[in-house]
């Protein structure tokens, strides 16, 4: 895997709602690992964005097993999922492969049966790719209030994304 491939998602969507779950099914995907910040909520929020709970319920009805995976504390992650009947792993230390494998274990699936949905190349996509999962990049919900380190990573992300087009 070249450094470019490591950060390259298998597929890109604008947001959660535009993800074509049928495409995932056709790929043999049975489970979804979901990032929190800027994927299902604005950064630092305590609740998921409007429509996310319905989306998760819809995906579960479609037969997908779902696990939330975040570098946030377990406490914050549990707050997100308390009303939803899904697995949740906090303090994940993404892009550590270990946390992605743990998520696959929680879903009782092999990594190649799992899709990672996230907004960051250096955590969600890189970790998912190296764990052998299908990777789905979504556009971050709101980058205006991200902290300095993430803003810096967004600049690097832009450089990498530009390199894909050529
Ligand atoms: Mg994120």
Fold and architecture overview:
The radius of gyration is 15 Å and the shape is globular. The chain has helices at about 5, 20-25, 50-60, 75-80, 95-105, 120-130, 150-165; strands spanning about 10-15, 30-35, 65-70, 85-90, 115-120, 135-140. The chain has one domain (about 5-165): HAD superfamily/HAD-like (Rossmann fold, 3-Layer(aba) Sandwich). The longest helix is centred in the C-terminal third of the chain and has 18 residues, at about 150-165. The protein has about 170 residues and is an alpha/beta fold. Strands 1-6-5-2-3-4 form a six-stranded parallel beta sheet, sandwiched between helices. The protein starts with a helix and ends with a helix. Magnesium ion binds near residues 38, 39, 118, 119 and 120.
Write out key terms for the chains shown.
Rossmann fold; 166 residues; alpha/beta; globular; binds magnesium ion; 40% helix; six-stranded parallel sheet
Bound molecules: magnesium ion
- The tally of helices reads 7
Largest sheet: number of strands, sense, barrel closure: 6 strands, parallel
Supply Rg. 15 Å
| Global shape | globular
Supply the CATH class.
Alpha Beta
Classified in CATH, the superfamily is HAD superfamily/HAD-like
**CATH topology assignment:** Rossmann fold
Our estimate of the beta-strand percent is 15-25%
Q: Which structural class best describes the helix and strand composition?
A: alpha/beta
Q: How helix-rich are the residues, as a percent range?
A: 40-55%
Rounded to the nearest angstrom, the distance between the terminal CA atoms is: 18 Å
Name the CATH architecture.
Answer: 3-Layer(aba) Sandwich
Mean pLDDT: 94
The figure for the number of domains is: 1
- Compressed to H and E, one letter per element, the order equals HEHEHEHEHEHEH
Q: Any low-confidence stretches, pLDDT <50, length ≥5?
A: none
